[in-house]
Amino acid sequence: MKHSSPTIIIIGGVAGGASAAARARRHSESAHIIVLERGPDVSFANCGLPYHIGGEISDRAELAVQTPQSLRALLKLDVRTFTEAVAIDRMQKTVRVRHVENGTEETIAYDQLILSPGARPLIPPLPGIHDSRIMTLRNLQDTDRIKAAAADAKNVLVIGGGFIGLEMAEQLVHLGKSVTLVERNPQVLPQLDQAMVRPLEIALQKHGVHLILEDGIAGFEPHESSLKAILHSGRCLESDLVILSIGVVPENGLAKDAGLELGPRGHIVVNAWQQTSDPNIYAVGDVCETYDPILGTRVAIALGGPANRQGRTAADHIFRGAQAQPYPGSIGTAIVRVFEVSAGITGWSEKGLKQAAIPYQTVTVNAASHASYYPGAETVTLKLLWDPQDGRVLGAQAVGKDGIDKRLDVMATALRGRLTIDDLVHLELAYAPPFGSAKDVVNIAGFAATNIREGYLFPVATLAEAGAQIVDVRPSTVSSKQPVAGAKNIPLTELRDRLAELDRSQPVYTICQMGKTSYYAARILANHGFQAHSILGGAHHQL
Amino acid sequence: MKHSSPTIIIIGGVAGGASAAARARRHSESAHIIVLERGPDVSFANCGLPYHIGGEISDRAELAVQTPQSLRALLKLDVRTFTEAVAIDRMQKTVRVRHVENGTEETIAYDQLILSPGARPLIPPLPGIHDSRIMTLRNLQDTDRIKAAAADAKNVLVIGGGFIGLEMAEQLVHLGKSVTLVERNPQVLPQLDQAMVRPLEIALQKHGVHLILEDGIAGFEPHESSLKAILHSGRCLESDLVILSIGVVPENGLAKDAGLELGPRGHIVVNAWQQTSDPNIYAVGDVCETYDPILGTRVAIALGGPANRQGRTAADHIFRGAQAQPYPGSIGTAIVRVFEVSAGITGWSEKGLKQAAIPYQTVTVNAASHASYYPGAETVTLKLLWDPQDGRVLGAQAVGKDGIDKRLDVMATALRGRLTIDDLVHLELAYAPPFGSAKDVVNIAGFAATNIREGYLFPVATLAEAGAQIVDVRPSTVSSKQPVAGAKNIPLTELRDRLAELDRSQPVYTICQMGKTSYYAARILANHGFQAHSILGGAHHQL
Q1: What is the dihedral of CA B212, A432, A378, B381, to 10 degrees?
Q2: Which residues in chain A are contacts of B492 at CB distance < 8 A?
Q3: To 5 degrees, how large is the angle CA A62–CA A170–CA A129?
Q4: Looking at CA atoms only, how far is residue B338 from chain A in angstroms?
C-alpha cells in the first residue's frame, strides 16, 4: 500500500534529486520531503559551470537555478544543506546524517529514500596528484576556485579531452590562457569515432590549444613557480593550473555500505522504476545503471537529461506504484561545442559496436546545413550506423559548424522510435531555405544506407582503404589545387568519354570533395561494367 | 518485364522531375531520359525565389541549381527546354510536344512517362485581375518580373498570407516597400491554428506591414498611376504592385485529357510507387495526391521535400518494380520565417482534426530554446495534438525566435515513428547549454500531455475559456505591471498560506507567465481539495 503522506528523504538535491522532489510535491501536498545536501547548494546548473569560468555566463547567480529558500517557498521542501548522509539503516528505514558545520549527528526516518548523489571526478593515485593547483570541476565551489586560480594563471593544462575537458579548453582560451590539452586516447571525445572528431581537433589547434594525443599523465612534480606534469612518454609540461577531467566515478559509498546491489563498475542496479535491490530505496542519475533500449544491454550514462527524468520516474512510482510509466532506458545523446565546431553522438558508436561484437553497417555523408543557395550554409557530416539484418538505426554522430544539434535530435528521436534506414529516406523535415534542404543530410544518409543495402553503393570509408586505381572526379581546377595523393583526375563530366583510360581488370575507387559526386561516378562506372567503389565523405573528410 | 534501356520521358524538370531523372540515370547508363520543359529553366531553386527578390540571395545564378547543359554533362539527360507537352497518347505510348519558339510539333515515344508539371498559382476570375501589375511567383521569369516591378513600386499589396505571401511580405519590407498583406481568413498561415500564428502577425505589424485579416479581394480597378484593389468589405487599397499568392492548382490538363484518374480537387491519383491509373505513367510532386500516414486519408501536399522523394520512388519502380520501396505518404511538415519569428507545423492541426471529426487532445507549452541560464535563450511555444485513445501523436506546431525548425523536425520524426506522448517524455535530445535543456520543450509537452491523461492537469486553452475565479500566481511585481483582467494576484510562494481567500465551491483558474507556475499552483490547489484548472501558455500566449 502506498502512503499518501510519506516521508521521503532525497540524498543530493541536483538534477535527479531536485526533479524527484518537485514531482513528489505535485503528487502530494502532505508528503514530508527532505533534501539532504552535503554542500551549500541545491539544484545548480552543473552543465553551465565551464561557461561561468569563461565568462559567457557572467552572473554566478544564474547558475543557482534554485536556492534552499526558493525550494522551501515553491515546493515546501525541507532542504537541509551542509548535511551529509553517512549511513543507511535499511531495517529501521533511517538515514544517519552528520551536520558538516558542527559535526553533530542525528537519525532521520524515511518511508522512501531516493539516492541522487551523482558521480565525482576521477582522481588517479599519481605522484603529486594532491597539489592544490590540480583542480576538478563538479560544483559551484570548484567553479569559484578554478575561476580565481585561472585569473592568475598563464599556462593551463587540461587533462582529458572528453566533454568537460573540451568545454574547459575552449573557455580558458576565451580567457586568454595558453592551454594544453592532453588525452591518452588517439583522439579527443573518445565516445565518438575518430574521423568524426577531427574537425574538433582542428578547431582546437586553430585557436591555439596545444593538443597532445595518445599520451597520459604519469605524475606531477610541484615547483614553487609552476607545476610540472610528466606524461607517459616522458614529456614534461609546465603549467600554473591543471584541470583534471578524465572521467567520473559513481558516489556509491552509502549504497555499498548498505548492501545494495551494484553493477560491474560500481553503479547502483535499479529496475525500470529506479528501485534498487531494496524496494524502499530508489537511485537516480549518474550513480545508477540504466539500460540501453537499442540493444538491451546495461549501461551507465552520466548525463543531465536522463537524471532529471529518472528522478521524475522514481517520484511517480512512490505515489502511483505499477501505474507509473517505467523509465525506458538511455541512449546517451550528447553534444559539445568547441569554438565554431560542434560534434555529438546518439546511440552506439562504431567502436562500441565492434567491441560488443554486434554486426553493423555504416556510412558517412556530407551535406549543407540548409539550402546551399541561401547564405550561411555549412557542411554537416553525419555518420550513420545500422543493423544489416533489419535496417534498424543503431547510432549516429554529427559534426560541423551549424545544425549539428538538430540532426542529433532527429536521430535520437529515430532511435527512440526504432526507425530504419528506409524511414530515414522519407523523414519529412521542415524545409525553407534558411532552415533546411528539400533533401536533408538525414535523408541523404538514408539514401546512402539503402543504396549500400541494394548494391548501388560499394563504399570504402577512407582513402587509406582504397586500392591502387583511384579516380578524383572533381573539376580539374579544384583537383589541381588540392590534389589527392595517388589519384588520377577525371572530372565527372568527362568520365563517360574517358573510360578507356581506366583498367577494367582492377577495381576503381572514386573520390570527390563531399562524397556525392564520387557516388555518381561509381554508378556510371558500375553501369559500364567496372567494379567501382566510392570513397565516403570525400576529400573533405580525409583530414 | 522491366526494360534495361527504356526511354523515359519526364514532363517538368524541377524538384520531382529532376530527382526522377537523376535517380533513373543511377539505375542505368543506357536509358534514354528525356526531360521536357516548357520554359528555359530546369531544376531551379523554387523555394529560394522570394529571397532573390529581397536581395538575401544576391546572385540569380545561385537559383539555377542545374542548367540544361550541366544536366547533359552530369547525367547524360536529353533536356529539351522551350518544349511543351501538349498531349499524351496512352495507347501508342507517345507524347505530342510543341516547340514553343517556332510552334512546330513532334511526337516522341516513351516506355515510361513521369508527370512532374507542378501546380500553378491560383488566379481567381475577378474584375481587373489581368492587370499587368498583378503578379504571381512560380519561376525565375516571374522572379525577374517582380524584382523589376518592385524596384519602381512604393506600395505593394500582397494577397494571401500563406507561406509564399509571408515570405514575400518580409522580403518586400527588406526592400523598403510599404507593404499591405490581405488574408481572407481571420489569421495568417491558415494551415496552423490561430493562437500559434499570433507571434507572426505581431512581427509583421512591428516591421510595418499593414495587416488586413478576414477580408478577401473582390476585384481591381486599374488607374494609370496606381492599381486600386477592392476588398469584400468595400475597403479600397491603392498600390503599385500586387503579389497574388492565394494558393495553387495542380497542372492536371495533360493528365485529364489523357483520361488519368483524378482526385476530388483535380490531383492525379497515384499508388504507393507513384503510378497513375495507367501503369506506364507516373506522377510526382504538386500535381498528384498522396496519402497521410497518420490517419490514412488521401491528401494533396505541395512541398519540395515530398516531390523530390516521390521522383526518386518513381525512378526506383521503373527499374526495380515491386522491389522498390513504396512512398510512405506525406505528413506536411512546413516552416516559414517572418522577420525574427519562425513558425511551422507537422502532421494535423487542431482545426483539421475538428473538421475531420477525429477525436484528439491538445496542449500548448512554452519553454526556453536552450538552457535559460545561457545567453540568447528564446521562448519556444509548442502545441501538441494526440489521440486520446492510445496517446499517439497526431500533429505539432511551433512558433518562436530560435530552435523552431529543430522542434518541428523532432516532431516530424516522432510522427514517422508513430511515437506516443509517453515517448515524448523520454526523448533524449542533445543537451549542452548552448543547444538545449535537460528538459527540452518537447519533453515538457510530453509531461503536460501525460499529466492531462493521468488527471494531474486540467487545462483550459485560453483566458477566455476560464470561469470567474481566476488567480494570477506570478510575483506581485510582474502582475502589477501587466495585470490579467479579472484575476486576483496570489503569488505561488504565498498560495499555501492564502487558500482561505478562495471560494472552494467554485473552480479556480490559475494563470502565470508561461503556463508552468500555473500548473504548479493548480496542483497545490487540487491537492488541497479545490477544482483547479491551469490556463495553458500563460499570459505570454494571451496576445
Answers
A1: 60
A2: 74
A3: 95
A4: 11
User: Is the Cβ pair A333, B520 closer than 8 Å?
Assistant: no
Q: What is the CATH number that goes with domain A340-453?
A: 3.50.50.60
Of B334, B425, B430, the CB nearest to A409: B430
CATH fold of A7-118+249-323: FAD/NAD(P)-binding domain (3.50.50)
Residues A423, B417: C-beta atoms closer than 8 Å = yes
Following DSSP, what letter does each residue of A86-136 receive, concatenated?
A: EEEETTTTEEEEEETTT--EEEEE-SEEEE---EEE-----TTTT-TTEE-
Question: Is residue A220 a contact partner of residue A227, using CB atoms and an 8 Å limit?
Answer: yes
The CATH number given to B7-120+249-323 is 3.50.50.60
Instruction: For residue A39, give the nearest of A130, A118, A129 by alpha carbon.
Output: A118
Residue for grid cell 555523408? A365
Nearest to A114 by CA among A302, A268, A291, A305: A268
Q: A134-204+215-244 and A340-453 share one CATH topology?
A: yes
Measured CA to CA, the distance from residue B410 to residue A410 in angstroms comes to 5
Q: Which homologous superfamily is A134-204+215-244 in?
A: FAD/NAD(P)-binding domain (3.50.50.60)
Grouping H, G, I as helix, E, B as strand and the rest as coil, residue B219 is strand
The CATH number for B134-246, chosen from 3.30.70.2740, 3.50.50.60, 3.30.530.20, 3.40.50.2020, is 3.50.50.60
Enumerate helices (H) and strands (E) in chain B, giving the number of each: 15, 30
pLDDT in tens, chain B (543 residues): 455 799 999 999 889 999 999 999 999 999 999 999 998 888 888 899 999 999 999 999 999 878 889 999 999 999 999 999 999 999 999 999 999 999 999 999 999 999 999 999 999 999 999 999 999 999 999 999 999 999 999 999 999 999 999 999 999 999 999 999 999 999 999 999 999 999 999 999 999 999 999 999 999 999 888 999 999 999 999 999 999 999 999 999 999 999 999 999 999 999 999 999 999 999 999 999 999 999 999 999 999 999 999 999 999 999 999 999 999 999 999 999 999 999 999 999 999 999 999 999 999 999 999 999 999 999 999 999 999 999 999 999 999 999 999 999 999 999 999 999 999 999 999 999 999 999 999 999 999 999 999 999 999 988 888 888 999 999 999 999 989 989 999 999 999 999 999 999 999 999 998 889 999 999 999 999 999 999 987 787 654
Query: Any idea which architecture B459-541 has in CATH?
Result: 3-Layer(aba) Sandwich (3.40)
Cα B313 to Cα B17, B325, B442, distances in angstroms:
11, 7, 32
User: Domain limits of chain B?
Assistant: 7-120+249-323, 134-246, 340-453, 459-541
pTM of the model: 0.97
From chain A, the residues in CB contact with B332 under 8 A are 428
Distance from CA of B48 to the nearest CA of A (A): 6
A438 neighbourhood in chain B, CB within 8 Å: 15, 47, 304-305, 307-308
Architecture of domain A461-541: 3-Layer(aba) Sandwich (3.40)
B104 burial via Cβ count (<10 Å: 0-12, 13-18, 19+): exposed
Contact assignment for B74 to A520 by CB distance below 8 Å = yes
Nearest CA in chain A to B292: A428
Closest chain B CA to residue A309: B426
CB contact under 8 A, B406 and A409: yes
What is the ipTM metric for this complex? 0.96
Facing B417 at nearest CB: one of A413, A439, A447: A413
Is A512 catalytic? The answer is no
Question: CA-to-CA distance for A538 and A535, rounded, in angstroms?
Answer: 6
